[in-house]
Amino acid sequence: MAEFLDIVNENDEVIDVMERSEASKRGLGYRIIFVLFYTPMGDVILQRRHPLKSAGGMFTTTASGHVESGKSYEETAIKETKEETGVDLEPTQLVDLGKRSYHAQRGMRWAGVYLHEYAGSIEDLTVEENEGDGFVAVPLDELKLAVEQKQKEYTLFAITEFAEQLLSEVERRITPATRHD
């Protein structure tokens, strides 16, 4: 089944609707979301991408996805989190870090970026079939170092400005008394 996306300009204004593969092929701008889980202990939960997907085997945010035409960033973040992790979230459980534009390999993207404090066990997360290949919990300081060194196994984190924003916000939210260094 075809997935239709809102095509957006440099101001995140909808200018057209197009099938996802065509929009990507033509390098047109569209909307996506990233949801990053962190734990009270200071770990960041990353998803390993399925080996057959683009950037297969690499780590990315806990959940991510394309915003379908007519849907909001927040609706998509909740939907993709459920599909990719099995976790049902309410809007109040998401921290909205705002929208950012960036240039991907195949065109401009507007990304809605969200955080969620996850107190459950990583073993309770469910992997969406043919999408992910498991989850890992990475200590915040280790991930910050990986970003500084531009380690290639972290897909989104190659986008340094996103990584720095996400990780500094996670660091700000972790209680110093519970953090393991």
Shape: globular
**Structure classification:** alpha+beta
Distance between the termini: 46 Å
Helix content: 10-25%
The CATH homologous superfamily corresponds to Nucleoside Triphosphate Pyrophosphohydrolase
The low-confidence parts are: none
Q: What is the name of the CATH topology?
A: Nucleoside Triphosphate Pyrophosphohydrolase
Q: Write the element-wise H/E pattern from the N-terminal end onward.
A: EEHEEEEHEEEHH
**Major sheet characteristics:** 7 strands, mixed
Our count of helices gives 4
Radius of gyration: 16 Å
Number of strands: 9
Oligomer: single chain
Supply the number of structural domains. 1
**CATH architectural designation:** Alpha-Beta Complex
What amount of the residues lies in strands?
25-35%
Average pLDDT confidence is 87
Broad CATH class? Alpha Beta
Structure description:
With 181 residues, the chain is of the alpha+beta class. The protein has a single domain (4-173), classed as Nucleoside Triphosphate Pyrophosphohydrolase. 24% of the residues lie in helices and 34% in strands. It contains four helices and nine strands. Strands 3, 4, 5, 6, 7, 8 and 9 form a seven-stranded mixed beta sheet that branches. The chain has a two-stranded antiparallel sheet with strand order 1-2. It is globular and about 45 Å long. The N and C termini lie far apart (46 Å).
Present the secondary structure layout:
Blueprint: E1 4-8, E2 14-19, H1 20-26, E3 30-38, E4 43-49, E5 59-60, E6 63-66, H2 73-85, E7 95-104, E8 107-117, E9 132-139, H3 140-148, H4 160-173
Parallel strand pairs: 3-8
Antiparallel strand pairs: 1-2, 3-4, 3-6, 4-5, 4-9, 7-8
Helix pairs in contact: 3-4
